Here is the input.
Amino acid sequence: MSLRYGLLGLLAEGPASGYDLARRFQEALSPVWPAQHPKIYAELSRLSDAGMIEVDSHGPRGRKAYRITDTGLSEVRRWLTEGEVDHTLRTESVLRSFFFWLMEPDDLQEHLRREQRFFTETADLARGYAAAKDRGDFGTSPQTRSMRVAVEAAIGFYQALADWAEWAQTVPPAIPEGDPES
Amino acid sequence: MSLRYGLLGLLAEGPASGYDLARRFQEALSPVWPAQHPKIYAELSRLSDAGMIEVDSHGPRGRKAYRITDTGLSEVRRWLTEGEVDHTLRTESVLRSFFFWLMEPDDLQEHLRREQRFFTETADLARGYAAAKDRGDFGTSPQTRSMRVAVEAAIGFYQALADWAEWAQTVPPAIPEGDPES
DNA sequence: GAGCGCATGTAAAGGGTTACATGATTCT
DNA sequence: AGAATCATGTAACCCTTTACATGCGCTC
Here is the structure.
């Protein structure tokens, strides 16, 4: 359901084609909401049927740019202010940690190092984005200001996971059954 | 796919029925991997067909407890050490933030206060769990030690999101088009 | 015996990914 | 001419949720 509003939100910035939207999802939104082009094209059709968007222009190679309608704009706004926030979260990384006790200590350490590296790199990537924005690389439009807020969230939780993975490496391995405690 | 391994992982601790597993997913794993009972029963059938688990005992009210087989145990272990980690993440909270510029400043502040409250409460809940574990309420088995590691991750990222929501309230609202930049 | 919690499942619908398919335009 | 990129879409499949359906066993 959120994809629907993600598309409306992006179209609120200006007309765009399915291809454009797929690219923007990939570039900007993928860390928090991945979306592939088949789903995007399908959703655009449904939004169009619902009168929330309409074709703005036809371009080369069958390009079809959509524009948000007043109905669509009210609908995103309604969602943003009145819609219940779905706080569901899924992280395989943390799910796995429930089962760390099944791993060989060496394999676990190796795994945690990899995880730490991944999360640190992702956090750094987000920091780079934030720095570019703060330098003014993307202008000062309201949209890029919001993007900056979103990026701050990404920095925060990827760093939190990086710190966690680092800390987890310091947790002593479980004492095998029967061994004395220390 | 992860649900499959989540079930195997839980069954590695000892025999359990679909009902038990649904409850444990709800109690312990739901913050990072929600799962409803229809999916769980379906997956158990498939795991049973694949020879990774087998019926351990029949109880009252048609209760069927499953036990993990050697094949199943190797399979979780293989997943944990060799399986590629899927780092996909979806947070509606952060997706919404890309579109904050569409909201009235007052509505946004209210929204962020609610979000901060939610994330703080969730982080505190996790802290309570961690404290109980550290007090020794759940014993010192390898399983509960791993659970403690998982809980630390939850504390980390929920706190990160709480901090973010608090910080976002201090970001000045976008200057409406045409207004001078103060 | 009424009500609650235990216990299992099916059916339908929704959401999302991957693979397949096609063709136009631009760049080198 | 060939390669890369733009551009749209369908089909099949997988994963997940919600609603429906049923019945047993325990407690008050």
Observations:
- Residues 4 and 43 of chain A are 6 Å apart (CA to CA).
- Chain A touches chain B through 66 residues (CB under 8 Å).
- The radius of gyration of chain A is 22 Å.
